[in-house]
Amino acid sequence: MRVSASIALSLAALAGALPDATVKRQVSQLRPSYDFVIVGGGTSGLTVADRLSKAFPKKTVLVVEYGDIEYGPGSYDPPAAGASTWTFTSLPNPEVNNKTAFVAAGKVVGGSSVVNGMFFDRGSRFDYDSWAEAGGQEFDRSDIKWDWGGIFPYFKKSVTFTEPPAALAKKYGYTWDISAYGGSTPIYSTYPPFQWADQPIMWNTWKEMGLQEPKECGGGDKEGICWVPTSEHPVTARRSHSGLGHYAAVIDARKNYDLLTKHQGIRVIYPKEHKSKTPIVEIRSLADDSLFNVTAEAEVIISAGALHTPTVLLRSGIGPASVLKAAGIPVVLDLPGVGSNLQDHSGPSISWNLTKPGNFTPVPANMLNPDFLADATAGFDETPARGPYTLGMGNSAIYLSLPHLSPDHHATIISKIHKIITSGSAASYLPPDQRASRASRAMIAGYEAQLAALATLLANPRAASLESPWQTTGTSAGAFLLHPLSRGTVRLNTTHPLAPPILDYRAGSNPIDLDLHVAHTRFLRRLIDTPTMRGFGAVETGPGELEEEEVVEYVKRQLTLSFMHPCCTAAMLPEDRGGVVGTDLKVHGAEGGLRVVDMSVMPLVPGSHLSATAYAVGEKAADIIIEEWRQRD
């Protein structure tokens, strides 16, 4: 899509502010009941609310959101107060020197799409095909497909991609394939009108290391040096998020769509015949701690995110029986996968100094110059916006498969994964309460299925194992592990059940993750010896030449345990594989209209940042729900 001058001003106005006056903030403003109640107004939740309220103008939709309406500055905007976030610190991880993971998530209308890094990429086709593989024959028989063919149309539908002007594309070398896009939703992505002058240094470095340069990395094939769109408005360069695109842009025309902010969706409560009734939702006002119930005539959809959805389910009596009993919560549904299977991207970095850095301008250091900074600020307020503040967190990254980055060792790593499966030792890598409980068979079977899918994925020379993003040369390169084997948990805080949950990342609990981190680190070290980096006098400062055991210790010291991509804690898998929801996203055993729609439903974390996938999951979920209710009606 190209934005014409005639619609530029209206688009700019849309990016400006959320319609605060339409928001509900107390129970007296609500209707007696609703058809659909959505717990969580984040990326996926607002997508579903938008689509349902449009498809069914005679049905009512309520979104319950803990946060409030807030302006969401971009990740590199001029200094401004950021939107509210949840912050979590995990339990110590003994396998990696007792390091803790720091995780942040949006506590605001729009969820993490309001606070993330705006890096709007998709995984490869093989990442989503692995979801189907992990689901096995039961998912093969389902009419609802979550492989690449099943989700790609929703990637296209979920976003309006704006092509950059030809002169800008030529200046920076932007490439894309418009066939990977095609949506008309007011969720925007584009390439910014600015890059730092030294950005090409790393691009040339990766080319010298033999990496390919695909034209488009969002169409299913994603291996090489990639341009990645930013989730920003094509005219104003302001952040594009679900609070704008799926609420502000549509609410004036949706008299059946209510948003209740500053309220916590605590739990769902079933009547005695819980398997055939739609549950009611218990809600807490943050203003006075009062509790009240809202009746859902059709469905309740939990969309509170990968870290809070499990707590809503657990407080509802849905989860591992052993965990519920320990918390004193009556068991409604014994689903051991609730709060299990926690995954995230993690990784160390390598570092260097440039003894001959060159004379590039502009570079980030120019922002220290008052005149340059003033012009950058003024440019951001122009229409269309220009200058450094339009950049976000960058648009460049490499994605590389294990066979390509470690041709001598990848077979050994794959063999280790297969050995875990064939030796029957998979249980030893799971949390203790998933090894010996009555439900352990399902959790072990699910983990073995995931390991088999990951072995296929990691052996594929077209499926990336490593990501390393950049926006300027800098002095370091990060190594994101895209497909971890370790599995953590999200558990209810039994002392304060309404408080944020307790996270146990269990990083390194499967030591093959450390093998992968070492392979990634050794590959990145090779960039120091490229002609480009030698030309700038690159001197490595870490890790340097080390023995294998020393590299492992370096990784443990350097490791960032979370790149803010938590997922998979209410996994879409068969129940006998530890799944929480089926392909229709209904909670197993809850026949009366209870679904989960957010990043907790992914069985495996894809090789991408999660925002684009969250929109696509929301879009596909909405179509599933709409089709079912149209057939009923």
TrEMBL record:
SUPFAM superfamilies found in the cross-reference section: FAD-linked reductases, C-terminal domain, FAD/NAD(P)-binding domain
GO BP annotations listed: secondary metabolite biosynthetic process
Entry's transmembrane regions: none
Gene3D superfamilies the record matches: FAD/NAD(P)-binding domain, Glucose Oxidase, domain 3
UniProt keywords, alphabetically: FAD, Flavoprotein, Signal
Entry annotation: catalytic residues: H565, H609
Residue positions binding FAD: T43, S44, V108
One Pfam family per UniProt: GMC_oxred_C
CC cofactor: FAD
Coiled coil (residue ranges): none
Annotated InterPro entries: FAD/NAD-bd_sf (IPR036188), GMC_OxRdtase (IPR012132), GMC_OxRdtase_N (IPR000172), GMC_OxRtase_C (IPR007867)
Gene Ontology MF terms: flavin adenine dinucleotide binding; oxidoreductase activity, acting on CH-OH group of donors
Residues of the Glucose-methanol-choline oxidoreductase N-terminal domain: 106-129, 305-319
Signal sequence interval, chain numbering: 1-17
Protein family (similarity comment): Belongs to the GMC oxidoreductase family.
Name of this protein: Glucose-methanol-choline oxidoreductase N-terminal domain-containing protein
